[in-house]
Amino acid sequence: MPHALTRSLDRSATLFLIVVAACGVLIPLSNLLLPAGSLFQVPTYLVALFGKYACYAVLALSIDLIWGYCGILSLGHGAFFALGGYAMGMYLMRQIGTRGVYGNPILPDFMVFLNYPKLPWYWHGFDMFWFAALMVVLVPGLLAFCFGWLAFRSRVTGVYLSIITQAMTYALLLAFFRNDFGFGGNNGLTDFKDILGFNVQADGTRAALFALSCLAIVIAFLICRAVVTSKLGKVLIAVRDAESRTRFLGYRVESYKLFVFTLSACMAGVAGALYVPQVGIINPSEFAPGNSIEAVIWVAVGGRGTLIGAALGAVVVNYAKTYFTSGPLAPYWLFMLGAMFILVTLLLPKGIVGTFNSWWEPLKANRLTANTEGAVAEDGVSEPHMAE
Amino acid sequence: MSNPPHYYFCRGRPVVANVFDRFHSLVLSVFLIVALTVPAFAGAFEDSVAKFANDDFSDTDEAIGEVAASGNALAFPIISALQDGRLSADPDSKKVYVTQDDGKVIDAATGAAVDKLPDNAAAVRLNNRLRRTVEAALGSLTLLSPDPARRIAAAQSVFKAHEESALPIIEGALAKETNKAVKAAFAEARAAILLNKSDASDTDKLEAVATIKARGDQEALALLTSLSGQPPLVASAITGAIASIQSRLAVWSAVQNGWYGLSLGSVLLLAAIGLAITFGVMGVINMAHGEMVMLGAYTTFVVQEVIRTSYPGLFDYSLLIAVPLAFLVAGAIGVVIERTIIRFLYGRPLETLLATWGLSLVLQQAVRTAFGPTNREVGNPSWMSGAFEFGQITITYNRLWILCFTLAVFAILLAMLRYTALGLEMRAVTQNRRMAASMGIATSRVDALTFGLGSGIAGIAGVALSQIDNVSPNLGQSYIIDSFMVVVFGGVGNLWGTLVGAFTLGIANKFLEPVAGAVLGKIAILVLIILFIQKRPRGLFALKGRAVEA
């Protein structure tokens, strides 16, 4: 494993990890230790906002893993994100206990309201954190495994796959909107009180959740790097660039795709689980197909197939969204988002990081050859070529 | 198109009132029979009418009975005026007046026009009991109304109420009736009464069961199942009739689901048919397709607004004007999109998908800014509103027109691809771009026109969908996933596949709905399509070829 780690980390990846880790440590510390109103104190609302971005960054990493390195464009990754979120939301609902409006020790408020006689079977066990945490990974993973197993085995590829993933999240959207589905219907799950005994509204909890989200970025990034720099990663890139050729070379393409798709769904689930306690609500609109497509554009903006770019894109686009939708420019946000989709695909197909690399790499290469004759090129992943 | 039925007999009222009504109706019918045979005296009619002016409920009651029985042509206007509170009486002169719908006033006793109501004239008052008497009187009067539709409606209400007291009137009316449809309705009403009459002979009852079995709808079923205490022979006939009606109703409910399915399928086809060109023929994923539909709907809205403000007489032609305009608007925008965005993305389907999604956001927001976020009112022209009965199901004209329109658009498109030069070029370019270019076809021009055609057809779809759906900036979004499902299910690159796909999905959806509910039905369809694509990744009617990757 140490070997896998050192191999997977080139200079920019290390830099990225250091920046994320520094944010994850410094922002909570500044929020908690410095006096309120001080110049360097990060207010709590910003901590919560950054925490949200961090979760989006994990989601973006999971999408980049399959889209950037395996060519699977999933327009339904929001579904895995939301499923992870619902699993965490169910745990948080069970923690409310008698503090709900109806004071029922077992049933969450909406079930009392909808006259549920007893807890539905699939809600059992969610009062234990370890079980909920397991489900956060297991449920999205299982759905992705079944879905991917069916889709990849029958060689549904390209836009067809994109469209049926969209249909999948749309079907889940419709299902979760139903009251009798047992997940709170339209209103979803909200009014959370405690997580592991800590108040979800408290500054300390928010800071800890933010730090955890940064940790999630680090871990997700390391996993992705480990996958894409391994031999498995080379095969994935081969699948992305020439699927049939890879198959003819004797690789079982569908197994590789299935593995990476399931892994990616699990990561998206974790992102959703961290997201829910920080925003305080999970409802069916998270399944909306538009959300999943928006997540794809984060990756496209940041740079497909660069991992760092995906995380960066998620933060940049969402910061822009917060900035514009809260100001007088709010009516124009959709114009901007739409224009971003169009301009990035037309003018910046490699995204921010990819474009930067394509300027920087030749310079670096020149310097290297000038300075150290015959130096060994850094071990890393080749820049992805856009699949034609 | 049927009139609302006149319920003029008992509907779950206290028994006392019921008995009284029966008695009263009996009196009334005796009067009516007399009226049918003996011409009433004019003086008697005037006296009866004058009783309305006494402001006494029992006098009013008598007056209703006498006027209804008089056979006078004024009887119907008077009693219906009484029902609507348009009958006024002057307590001093004992004169009674009817205020007609157009505001003119006539003397109730003579029918002579009066300039205006006297100042002290007050509306004749009614209480609940009298209101029922009025309804009953109106019902009987309408049995003899000159308008056949009225007579049928009256017979319907007799059928539902099946009061024994109405039997003589029905039989009298039946004997005189010449209109076939009305005669059948009278016969059914008579049968309903006979079946509920305890002392009717078995032969009469058996005949009645046969009549009602022939009627065979939900009401007939309700009537037959409500019967009890019949003689054994009749009872077994009734059981047989119930079974036969039930099986017939099951068939009709299947027919109805089929019709709803066809209707939904035509909507799906309309929304998907443009996509079948852009996605199916060109291979371009146009996520902004739904927005083209929306633009078509808004074009219809603008056309109707202009017509409303400037040329109100043209309203019935608004859709005919909107269809070519919507085609041009959406088609022109489509050509612009193709020239400025899509042509740079050929061969990169995933990027095309993202760019057109962005475009759809921009278009939606543009329409939201221009027309506001709320629903816009688009009216139905007169020839598209209303409905007609077909057997036991009701078919609305707008759904029927949309089905015909969809099929027409489909046929025209098919013919265009098959017989015109542009269609030939389109097929050539999609089959082998480089070869087509070598043959001198300007491929980029054909691309732009093909995309424009697909978008224009989406615009036309918007005109039709504006008639049955809310015209809002989100109109397109609700169709985009369904449209893709249809095209993917039917098979890419094949218009016939789209046709079959749309109607299959529509009908399957409507047959699942009664079983699973609307939302679960839709989810089930989505899941089934996802599973179907596993089985046939290229859809129902896949193009055959030897390429490893399309």
In short:
Chain A has helices at 2-8, 11-33, 44-70, 77-96, 109-113, 129-153, 158-177, 203-229, 231-241, 243-248, 253-279, 289-302, 308-325, 333-347, 351-371; strands spanning 189-190, 194-195, 198-199, 281-282. Chain A is mainly alpha-helical. In chain A, helix 3 crosses helix 12, helix 8 crosses helix 9 (231-241) and helix 8 packs antiparallel against helix 11 (253-279).
Report what the structure shows.
- The complex is a heterodimer of chains A (388) and B (550).
- Chain A has 388 residues and is mainly alpha-helical.
- Chain A contains 15 helices and 4 strands.
- In chain A, the strands form 2 sheets. In chain A, strands 1-4 form a two-stranded antiparallel ribbon. In chain A, strands 2-3 form a two-stranded antiparallel sheet.
- In chain A, a hairpin with a 2-residue loop joins strand 2 and strand 3.
- In chain A, helix 1 (2-8) packs across helix 8 and helix 4 packs antiparallel against helix 6.
- The two termini of chain A are 35 Å apart.
- The model of chain A is unreliable at 374-388 (pLDDT under 50).
- With 550 residues, chain B is mostly helical.
- Chain B is built from 21 helices and 7 strands.
- A 5-stranded antiparallel beta sheet of chain B has the order 4-3-2-1-5.
- In chain B, strand 3 (105-107) and strand 4 form a beta hairpin.
- In chain B, helix 8 (180-196) packs across helix 9 (202-215).
- The longest helix of chain B has 50 residues, at 232-281.
- The interface between A and B is large, with 50 and 43 residues.
